Amino acid sequence: MTDLRKWLAEAEAAGEAQTVEGAHWELEIGALSQVNYRRGTPKALVFDSIKDYAPGMRVLSGSVSNPRLLGSVLGLGWDNTDEDLVEKLAVKPGEWIERSGDFRAVTVADGPLLSHVDDEIDLLKFPVPRWHEGDGGRYIGTGCAVVTRDYDTGRINLGAYRMQVQDEGRSVSVNIEAGKHGAQHLRRWFEAEGRAPIAASLGHHPAYLVAAGVEVPGDVSEYDYVGAMAGAPVRTVAGLATGLPLPHDAEIAVEGWVRPDHKRPEGPFGEWTGYYSGSRDPILTIDVEKVYYRDNPILLGAPPGKPPHDYSYMRTVMKSAIITDSLRKTGLPGLRGVWAHEAGGGRSLLIVAIEQRYAGHARQAAYLTSQLPSAAYMNRFTVVVDHDVNPRDLGEVVWAMCGRTDPSIDIEVMKRTWGSRVDPLTLPGAVAFNSRAVIDACRPFERLGDFPAVAESSPDLVASVSRRWPEVLG
Fold first, then answer.
1. What is d(CA 239, CA 377) in angstroms, rounded to the nearest whole number?
2. Domain residue spans in the chain?
């Protein structure tokens, strides 16, 4: 399941991949990718014959941008709709976590990734795009999986952190938010050794992008998570410089070391919030010792930006499923649905639907959701609605807020919560706290019996007239 080229062949056969010839790495690949995300049904775009590069040196974007693509990446088949994915993923992320121990990654001696091993570093031999007009450079790591190791336990983590080419291709910076598992690993290595090993896969099956881009628990390796997703252990090769494991069938990878005092100015970069972040602040930069790549390698791009963007659909679907599973495990009763809206990048706007059982139930659901480990990072609004409201329909959610929320008593603000440097409201140099509002858009519990009825036809009546006059439905 985890070979990118086999998956691309399947995508082409399914009519879900499109080849683009002759685009320039300077902005054109990024602009075409944006246009793709915003059409009715995005496709996986394969850029070939890129300006200044030989045919066969390719860039892929849009790999998880619609339900058929994402379903195939998750091992759920090619014939999925939004509704299918929501239903299938209701329990899958929890199962993948629970079964990850049965699918431990296996280290092998060789693989396609080792076809070429360079000691002289030139990352610009690959067609690295400058994705957005305001970007401060060329970003080789957008759909990447950055590999770090826990100093004390040896557990491997994969994280999706942006990586900008530095020093005319001889090094690369890696921008890791402070609360992420990768940052915790590096800090511990710095304390113990003064430097930390690090590696990154830069082209691979999109399953690694999914695993690296969502909140997998700290005691589970994303390699094992992908193995559970695929139904078979993934195979890795040990890096020759650090020993860190890399997907044996990855397209491009780098490895080396980071030191706390080795930094380069980085950014700005168009981020998932829909705004540029970064102000040329110095960021940890990798002393790259080895570069690995296959013949005619494919760089996996997943550039963010104003939603919808490359992976906003994937994050929305996956985060919704993971938060649903986490809420169920808390024992919260009456849970009817969760949706991490794409407009909020799958993080900032969370909607939870419940069937109210007791006084305080709605606030409990709101506070639990806003502080779950899988939901807390960069959340800004958590809205709880009754079970008659579809959490995926923003029109219904706002309608519920307008008729069931009394701002004076139903909106509460939590302060000094987990924010981010990419938040457009975070001032340069400030500690990255944020605040978040929990909004109770449920009927008041004490008025469930006498709250005004909703003015719409009953489901039975709608079904009856639809059967008699089907032409009205087209």
1. 31
2. 4-300, 331-447
pTM recorded for the entire structure: 0.89
Cα–Cα dist 115/122, whole Å? 17
Cα 292 vs. chain centroid, distance in angstroms? Answer: 25
- 115 three-class SS: helix
CATH assignment, 4-300: 2.30.110.10
User: Among residues 294, 195, 178, 194, which one has the least CA distance to residue 237?
Assistant: 294
Q: Going by C-beta distance under 8 Å and a sequence separation of 6 or more, which residues neighbour residue 360? A: 445
Give me the phi and psi of 442, to 5 degrees please: -95, 160
Confidence at residue 6, expressed as pLDDT on a 0 to 100 scale? 96
Single out the residue of 157, 142, 250, 158 nearest to residue 203, CA to CA: 250
Tokens (6 digits) for 387: 């079970």
CA dist 323 and 222 (Å) reads 18
Pairing, β 171-175 against β 162-166? antiparallel
Cα–chain center distance at 284: 22
| DSSP label of 321 | H
DSSP string, 426-443: SPTTS--EEEEEEEEESP
d(CA 216, CA 156): 12
State the CATH class of domain 331-447.
alpha beta
**CA triple 38-41-47, angle to 5 deg:** 75
Distance CA 119, CA 57 (A): 20
- 174, 141 Cβ separation under 8 angstroms: yes
How far apart are the C-alpha atoms of 353 and 284, rounded to whole Å?
Answer: 41
What are 30-48's pLDDT values in tens digits?
999 999 999 989 999 999 9
Omega cis (within 30) before 308? yes
Which residues lie below 8 Å from residue 83, measured CB to CB, with a gap of 6+? Answer: none
Pairing of strands 145-149, 263-265: unpaired
C-beta separation of 425 from 435 below 8 A: no
pLDDT, mean of residues 323-349: 93
Distance CA 381, CA 362 (A): 14
**pLDDT over 80 (residue 332):** yes
On whether the CB atoms of residues 241 and 177 are closer than 8 A, the answer is: no
Residue type, 73: V
Instruction: Give 52's contacts (C-beta < 8 A, 6+ positions apart).
Output: 24, 25, 127
Give per-residue burial for 269-295: e unless 16+ CB within 10 Å, then b: bbbbbbebbbeeeebbbbbbbbbbbbe
Q: Cis link prior to 206 (omega < 30° from 0)?
A: no
Phi-psi label, residue 345: left if phi above 0, alpha if psi -120 to 50, beta otherwise: left
